[in-house]
Amino acid sequence: MGISLNNINKSYKKLKAVHDITFDVKLGELFGLIGPDGAGKTTIFRILTTLLLPDEGEATVAGLDIVKDYKAIRNSVGYMPGRFSLYQDLTVEENLTFFATIFGTTIEENYDLIKDIYEQIEPFKDRRAGKLSGGMKQKLALSCALIHKPKVLFLDEPTTGVDPVSRKEFWEMLKRLQKRGITILVSTPYMDEAALCDRIALIQDGRILEIDTPAAIVKKFPKTIYNIGANNMYKLIQTLQGYEHTYSVFPFGEFVHYTDKREAFETQDLKHYLEKADLSEILIEPTQADIEDAFMELARK
Amino acid sequence: MKEENVIEAEDLTKAFGDFTAVNAISFEVKKGEIFGFLGANGAGKTTAMKMLIGISKPSSGKATVAGFDVYTQHQSIKKNIGYMSQRFALYDDLTVKENITFFGGIYGLSRARIREKRKQLVAELGLDEISDKLVGSLPLGWKQKLSFSVSLIHDPKIVFLDEPTGGVDPITRRQFWEMIYKAADQGTTIFVTTHYMDEAEYCDRVSIMVEGKIEALDTPKNLKQQYQVNSMNDVFLKLARTPSPTLPEGKGENTVIE
Predict the structure, then answer these.
(1) Burial bucket for residue B228 (CB in 10 Å: 0-12, 13-18, 19+)
(2) Distance between CA atoms of A165 and B243, rounded to whole angstroms?
(3) In whole angstroms, what is the distance from residue A140 CA to residue B208 CA?
(4) What is the DSSP letter of A221?
(5) What is the pLDDT of residue B1?
(6) Which of A62, B33, B200, B213 could form a disulfide with A151 if both were Cys (CB 3.0 to 4.6 A apart)?
(7) CB distance from B187 to chain A under 8 Å?
(8) What is the interface pTM, i.e. ipTM, of the complex?
(9) How far off is chain A from B116, nearest CA to CA, in Å?
(10) Alpha carbon distance A8, A17 (integer Å)
(11) B171–A300: do the CB atoms touch at under 8 Å?
């Protein structure tokens, strides 16, 4: 097993940060913790990387106990925290050398693991880390987290605030690291990234809502979702919110995702209702649920 | 009324030494429009926005915001716009009511008007029960909604939103957009940046900045048609930057970000 958590609980004073968290990450798996700010993702990372003790529960990382074997865990994992935490006043190369030395290794020894990533920032190796762009900082932080060839890699919101192109590049890097046999636990608030994980845990307010493959989670969505479009989005949302049969209505890209309270219904009735409200260019068609639909449905329970 | 421009920029440029962060951008934003201002990290969005809100002087070019010149009338601009930064900017150690009162005062609202606004905002946001609680104790989603309401407290003509929904849960993110729609419906112009491409679809028009220039500007529908793709995410990926040339393998075939 790559990572295993059993009934982990943690409170900060009165605030219960995580509540009975139980899940396993298999060896070599790319596992995603998907949830908004304040869900408890960082607390889980800090417990697994032995920086924080849980109030209750047990956990192992690479077969090692997070309490008894904390020193051995620190040698076997790489951790990229959400906040950039390299030395801003050391250069790119100095940071990498520093982390290699701390772990009793050298850049040369494990260079093939970071080559793909480090090559992209190597032209700037004499630049201070504080002067790098966001995307370059991210690549340096990942290189430093990998320099001792960890068995398990922890990435806490590596793509938050990052544009879609850089996010796509970052996920390609992760997929390649996974192929080298590294177990990866990654968190993200971007639900579209969930589809790129082998399995995900949806998490909110310190509780896990669901654990499964992204495809299975979407498949479990209990209702038929309709894409509804019209000439005026704001009016469309308001009108649908006033419809007696509405179960949920959420803006989704250029359409609204609509579900109905009834088991089966005639879309013509809804169309007439919208037309009566002076909406035009009305389109109603069934569509597929996605991870965000699933998350919102689970969160409202 | 419909064709009234509240932002006009012509060849607006900002250079830092020999680096041109914003390179001769020209565009207009109409009253009541939701205008999406997109671009990759480092494309120049923040620099452009700083010039428009009157806190950074352009190197060259022209721009007016709410009818005021960005060179000579930046104080008037500040009075006529709202701004919500990507970092939470209300006071954590003041209560909800105190924050509203404070920002109302900053914008020179009368006491009577502040009282009225305070009542209205608390009711609209459903914050009755917690209006005497410290803002620091609220969940992020509520903070963001409150922040947006406060940025509208002086009834600005335009409100600038810099990544307002980062890290917010999907339901709150949508409630936030409903607030944006409502403000736009009432005639407030919305100028918004975001990294969520589904949110780009909610905008009336979208501009995409690449290396200091505006490479595309149109309705989401027309942009998708022009680039023959199904989503704004794909438009963005096609335009913003080709995948890193140093990326040795992969090239994206394993990766699908919807």
Answers:
(1) exposed
(2) 7
(3) 27
(4) -
(5) 45
(6) A62
(7) no
(8) 0.81
(9) 25
(10) 10
(11) yes
